[in-house]
User: Fold Transglutaminase-like domain-containing protein from Flavobacterium laiguense.
Amino acid sequence: MTNWDDVLLHVKNIPYGRNSNREDLSLVLKENKGSCSSKHAFLKEIASQNNIPNVQLIIGIYKMKESNTKIGTILSENTIYYIPEAHCYLNINGERLDYTTGSSNFEKIKNDLLEEIEIEPYQVGEFKIKYHQDFIKKWLSDSNATITFDQLWAVREQCIAYLSI
Assistant:
């Protein structure tokens, strides 16, 4: 890899999967896998260390549905239309770009976006988890849902596991 575009392409083509330690961004390369969080935090860190301007790390909460995310039929089997999912991606020069997998495309979720915030790479661990869980708890409360947070989170974990297949 000799330039920024090479790094972006390389990371996009690394297999999807959770790393053994959310805090160690070097594991994207060492373990040759990464999630949306670890891959994009790694890329943001590379951009910062190399003075590449206008690169922002974003958490977007979107409506994760079977129609916009490759999660099989897990939601419909549980009678759930969507789950608010926290997804990380980059905003480069005002354009949202997703390097999670070779087939990732932000356009698939653009119309289902509920909220966005900019974060720093170190925030992809505990901060992201708490932010996501707090969002879901408020969403469940506001919608008077009959499903509990723990039940919904368990279905979400099934969806994430399915993405790794």
Remarks:
- The chain has a mean pLDDT of 96.
- The helical segments are 4-13, 27-30, 36-49, 74-77, 107-110, 126-142, 149-163.
- The longest strand covers residues 55-64.
